[in-house]
Amino acid sequence: MGALDELLAKWRENPDSGTTLALCTYLGTSHREDLIREVGSTAEAWHKDDGQVMLAVGRMYLDAGFMQEAQAALVAAGKLSPNASMPYRYLGEVLLRRGDAARAEKVLARSLQLGGAGADTKMWHDRASVYVALQTRVGMRAVADEIERTIPKRNSIPPPTMKPEEASRLAGTTTSRQGVARNVPPPPKLVPSVPPPPVLHDRGHGGAKPAGGGARASAAEQRLPAFSENDIPTNIFDGHLLGRRVQSDGNLADALPSSNPPIVSSKPPPLPTAPAATRRPPTSTARAAAPALAAAPAPRMPPLAAPALVPPIAAVAAPTTSRPAPAPRAAPLVAPPPPSRPSSPPMLALVPGVGPARSIVESVDDSPNPSAETILEHLALVGVFERSGGALPTWATPPRERPRGTWLFIGAIVLAAGGGYGGFRYAHQKRVERLAMAQELESQVKKALETGSVDDLTKTDDKLSRVFDLDSRSQEAAVLWLHNRVLSALMLPSEPRGIESALARCTTLEVDESRTVSGKITSFLTQGDLAGAAAILPKWDEKAKADPFYHLAAGAMLERAGDVRAVGHYKQAFDLDPDLVVARLFHAQLVTLELGIQTGKPLIEDVVARLGDTPSARALRGLEWALDPQSDATPPDGARVAEADRTKLATPLLALPFVVDAQTAARAGKTDDALAALDKALKATATPAMASLIGQVAIDLGDERLARAATLRALSYSALYPRARSLAARVALLGGRLDDAKNAIQELDAKSPEVAVVRAAAAYEALDLSELESAGGAIGTDGPGRALAIGMNIVFGRKYPTPAVIAEIAVPSIPWGDLIGVDAALDTGNVALADKIVSRWGDRASTPTYALRKARLLRYQGKTEDAVKVSEDALVAGGVTPRVLVERFHALVANKNIAGARDLIGQYPAVLGPMTDFLKVSLDVADDKAARAKVLAARVEPPPDGSPLLFQIIAAEAFMGVGDPRAKPLLGVLMHLVPKDPELVLEIRK
Fold this sequence. Notes:
Elements: H1 3-13, H2 17-27, H3 33-46, H4 51-64, H5 67-80, H6 86-97, H7 101-113, H8 119-137, H9 140-150, H10 164-170, E1 174-175, E2 181-182, E3 200-201, E4 208-209, H11 219-222, E5 244-246, E6 252-254, H12 284-288, H13 290-294, H14 313-316, H15 372-381, H16 406-450, H17 454-470, H18 475-491, H19 499-508, H20 517-526, H21 530-540, H22 548-560, H23 566-576, H24 581-595, H25 597-611, H26 615-627, H27 656-667, H28 671-684, H29 688-700, H30 704-717, H31 722-734, H32 738-744, H33 753-766, H34 769-779, H35 786-796, H36 803-809, H37 817-827, H38 831-839, H39 848-860, H40 864-876, H41 882-894, H42 898-907, H43 909-912, H44 915-926, H45 930-939, H46 949-962, H47 967-977, H48 982-989
Antiparallel strand pairs: 1-2, 3-4, 5-6
Helix pairs in contact: 1-2, 2-3, 2-4, 3-4, 4-5, 4-6, 5-6, 6-7, 6-8, 7-8, 8-9, 16-17, 16-18, 17-18, 18-19, 18-20, 19-20, 20-21, 20-22, 21-22, 22-23, 23-24, 24-25, 24-26, 25-26, 26-27, 27-28, 28-29, 28-30, 29-30, 29-31, 30-31, 31-32, 31-33, 33-34, 33-35, 34-35, 35-37, 36-37, 37-38, ...
């Protein structure tokens, strides 16, 4: 059983995390799809909460080519280990191999941000950034094909290594503790194919005999196999055999190195008298003679002295064709050979056709001055010298050569030096020109980034690309590219890209970190991490205070968070760089939205003067018109932005043209068109201040749904934004939900107008006179508090507005105005005006406060049964106030439901307070129990001066029902205050 099978069996018994990790490393490149899917599915079931295991499974799928499964596993690993860089690195590779370069660039940038700064991760991130354009232009398939072509897939998991015990077991050995291999079979013996010596022809005797004297051949030597001339091994003189000897039994054994040179014979071989015959394949006769040759003794091979002197077999091989006999030659002019030295048994030369074979080793003379015969012998072996003759060498004086082109050589040197210097000067000049061109482009880009124009911003991309081509190591260009990415994220509605790449370039070029903080803030901002961006500010407020782009990015972040400190950062940005118009643009809009049109109007005029007639200037003029209550019904031409130009606006300004359209339609009475324009504006908003403005306009139009949506959008940017919470309270008041309004104003300034309005509305409904007077001092008599200021007088019945004033305040834009308007109309007996106001409520009539007024109107109209149903809706909905209980009591009594009225009084005595006894008296009168009613009426006192009007009317009804004399003065006061009140009229008619 192999290692993989054993590991697989162990894993199937217990698929723990360690075994699963080890098995994943084996299976990635095993091409075993069944095992890969089995291990992957089991790991996802058993170890779905283990980030390391899911990472290993994802890498296994990646190596096996299962990209979809790899992506799922790596996404799970990234969620389990959000601070680890490796899951994002391999997820980026998977996405890129699938062709999704845009998402791959973000994932790999996240890996770099988490510390994955390896060359491999940077390479994949750079490739992803490059292929984003290809994906946009051609599609994901083209990106995947290009990646497959340029970066073939390689294993992400290194090949597994086996332990020594495993390797020894697979090799058939057992390793002991000391590491010595036991039971290792011995290596096979090397038996070189060394043929026996050939038969040498003795010219003197005409017979054949072995070169070494066949009579002395041993029995082992006679057992050598027969061979032919073609069986001569070509490697007999290879370096692998040097320093070895042939033993008598034919085995090759290592020869011990010797310090003494080998003893060779210097006796030259006898020269042939005739040319050697042509070499032919062995005939049958030769094959028949093989047994005899086999019996020839095999000489022992001594160690060779000098491997370099042994010629290759190709140099001594006999020619394959015959040649004519050489011409007679003179006696060689050589010195007599030196006395021969004793030699060891020779090694045969095996050179056919040369004559009686002699040992090549014998011909090697290793003395410092070899003899002439030895030199000629070696020259003959290599084919330079012919033994059989040849012309004698003659020595001739070589002709004198003329010196060649000294001056030409000198000229070439001069020309080369001049060419090199000229090339250097040319390259230097070109570099200077390129740097000058790059600096000019940098100046143009810097000016384009400051204009605040979207068109100028998009044009800087190509110019910056040219700058990098001209000077790729420019720090200024790197900073400009970072500013380009920052402005793109703040001004363009498309998804921002490349901020992390720009930061990485600045880091590589060692740009001062204080100049790159704007990129870090913007990176957090684009990811929606406002807390992370805010955490940077305290650290860099002092270090980066001289960088205008730092203040611009900080202002944008604080504006998104609903922090008014953004105004100060915007101002510091254009104070440091007066030409940074984009900072002035954002500053003017924010001041106008936060502090009002009176404060923002001068700033808008200044920015418009700098921008001229541009879409951004028109948008600011439209904001000025929309917020100015004194403006005309239609905006001027300079305040409208054409449809084609709206795409040229910066992201914070995109909602302004739709707000202008909504205000134009609202002032023309086209409510539906206005609401449609507001809905488009809400989709384009990018800041909580703009969302609050849209919500306020929706409240003015009476659309609670759209106002609530704008409130939620503003609160999604910042839950602590004061204007968003005030807007939430206004929306609650628009729907008559006092509890929601109270929750919205918690922890806000109690003296602010928005909070005072909510407090006054709650006190008005609960008849809480002290709270009503306290809040009334802060709401004023104009603006949002106008209706509640009138309501304070209505509570006491002191002064009622005219019908014209009632119509003015009964609009959604004035908090609680339509409710107070209906109360004023009914108290003064103007039922028709009250009915007109109630008819405009629509779905809001079902909320508690609105249902209360509708039930009172129905009762005065004689529709008692409908009044009972509506008052029940008001009570069930949760608006249990003295006003609701009194109206429910009157509706039940008018519909002759005495038992229901009695149960109501007994259920809420604490809410009714002193009015409980007066209601009981009126109920006994209606139930024909006048005697009990008189006894109860005698025990109660009339309401004191300054009591609410509703309390006085209830007391007057009780006293008039039992004929109590105290009713007359009280009725006189009421007739003076509200002579046409339907409640008094009905009671008098009884």
